[in-house]
Amino acid sequence: MSKFEEVSQVYQKSRQTFLDYESDCRNFARSLIDGMIDYFEWPHTQEITYIPLGEEINPNDRFYALAGAMRMDDESFWHFGVELTAEEPGGSNPLPFLMSFFIKKIGPHFVVKLGQQGKEIRIHEDKQGKQDELAPFYDAVFHQILHFFAREYQNAVTHQKMAPGFILLTGEI
Fold first, then answer.
1. Which helix (H) or strand (E) holds 49?
2. pLDDT for position 88
3. What are the C-alpha distances in Å from 80 to residues 3, 9, 22, 49?
4. Domain spans of the chain, in order of start
5. What gap in Å lies between CA 154 and CA 159, rounded to an integer?
6. Each residue's pLDDT tens digit, 3-50
7. How far apart are the first and last CA of the chain?
8. Number of neighbours of residue 70 by Cβ within 10 angstroms
9. Residue in 53, 56, 57 with CA at minimum distance from that of residue 103
10. Which long-range contacts (CB under 8 A, 24 or more apart) does 139-145 make?
11. What one-character DSSP code corresponds to residue 47?
12. 120-124 vs 109-114, strand pairing mode
């Protein structure tokens, strides 16, 4: 075998390892978000939108599959946004908001951060798709959403928010 062929084989193996890693993280992310939506009993009539973070989004072309929205940062976290819509009781005054998730896998654990500066939460790969075991994580996200609307909504509306956090407003106020 030539040196070139040896390099080609090692490259192929490394590339496949990376693609498998990306696929594992994407599948975990999809399972995590689907479980969260079910846990919140979010209306299935509302569209769930995945959005790449840190990029200018064309308002006419903002529908991504999860794989298209995921990007890798300098710390090897895959990150993406999930846009949901809050509304007042009865469906009035709908308001889209964006949550930013950061995910990577270390050994048998997925590490999840809620926002770029969020605390790292470790979730064992065996818990993937098990809503009962992920309830503490989903509750943490739920409380972050409640906190945002109870304490940070006015600053977000007036664009006085100091630094982007886990949740940002994305729609017209």
1. strand 49-51
2. 92
3. 39, 32, 13, 10
4. 3-169
5. 8
6. 999 999 999 999 999 999 999 999 999 999 999 999 999 998 888 889
7. 64
8. 20
9. 53
10. 140/114, 141/36, 141/99, 141/114, 142/40, 144/99, 144/114, 145/97, 145/99
11. P
12. antiparallel
Per the listing, tokens 């490394």 go with 14
Q: Which two tokens stand for residue 94?
A: 């709908």
CA of residue 79 relative to chain centroid, distance? 6
- Written as six digits, the tokens of 109 are 């654990």
Structure tokens at 142: 């739920």
Rounded Cα distance, 13 and 160, in Å:
48
113-140 exposure pattern, b = at least 16 Cβ within 10 A, e = fewer: bbbbebeeeebeeebbeeeeebeebbee
- Using CA atoms, how far residue 66 sits from 50, 53, 120, 152, in Å, is 6, 12, 21, 27
Q: Phi and psi at residue 10, in whole multiples of 5°?
A: -65, -40
- 28's enclosing H/E stretch is helix 3-40
What pTM was computed for the model?
0.86
Query: DSSP states of 66-124 as a string?
Result: HHHH-EE-TTS-EEEEEEEEE--TTS-S-EEEEEEEEEEEETTEEEEEESTTSPEEEEE
Distance CA 24, CA 117 (A): 23
